[in-house]
Write a structure and sequence with these properties.
Oligomer: single chain
Order of helices and strands: HEEHEEEEEH
Number of strands: 7
Low-confidence stretches: none
Shape: globular
Radius of gyration: 13 Å
Mean pLDDT: 92
Number of helices: 3
Distance between the termini: 23 Å
Largest sheet: 7 strands, antiparallel
Number of domains: 1
Strand content: 25-35%
Length: 105
């Protein structure tokens, strides 16, 4: 697995109605998943909560502080549907705000 970069993430994001999809190869193992999430969090200034592992999925709540508000989202990695995405948490957060944050981080 190659090193994760901001450009690689931003070049491979897609905005959907409820999320921001990250169309990159999925990490192949639990260790590689945690390394990927740590790199992603460091690149974009997120802090992580405790991860939640399932049989074919990984989720973790990510937090970031912007100039005017705090931003919360769930990072989901699903091997069954072969997808990585971010879902905003809270009534004041939406996928557009999340994508804008990623571009400004």
């Amino acid at each position: 697995m190659s090193q994760l970069t901001k450009n690689a993430v931003l070049d491979n994001t897609t905005l959907t109605e409820n999320s921001v999809e990250i169309r990159l190869p999925l990490p192949p193992t639990p260790l590689k998943t945690q390394q990927w999430v740590n790199e992603f969090s460091a690149l974009f200034g997120f802090t992580q909560s405790e991860p939640d592992w399932g049989a074919d999925r990984f989720q973790v709540v990510l937090n970031a502080q912007t100039d005017d508000a705090s931003l919360r989202c769930i990072l989901c990695v699903e091997w069954l549907c072969e997808a990585i995405w971010l879902e905003p948490i809270g009534t004041h957060n939406d996928p557009h705000l999340l994508l804008r944050y990623l571009h400004q981080a």
